[in-house]
Amino acid sequence: MKQCTHADALPHPDPQPLSETCLECLADGSHPVQLRLCLTCGHVGCCDTSPGQHATKHHKDSGHPIMRTHEPGEEWRWCFVDHVLV
Predict the structure, then answer these.
(1) Digit-coded pLDDT (tens) for 48-69
(2) How far apart are CA 20 and CA 34, in angstroms?
(3) Superfamily for the 7-85 domain
């Protein structure tokens, strides 16, 4: 099973969200389907089911490797680099 090589470098505790929702979706006039929180900087972006796929775009632009769900009642994390749940 593949392991994440980036989790040990994450800040503790998780960063505070920089916004309540995906600001890129607000600017585009679209609606985010699910929200994701960058665990490096706190950027909030929408999931890949959303039209803008802003969480993935943030990873590609910033290189920040891990995000977690920003949905109530969910706890999972995803490493974009290693393509594994953390």
Answers:
(1) 999 999 999 999 999 999 999 9
(2) 12
(3) Zinc/RING finger domain, C3HC4 (zinc finger) (3.30.40.10)
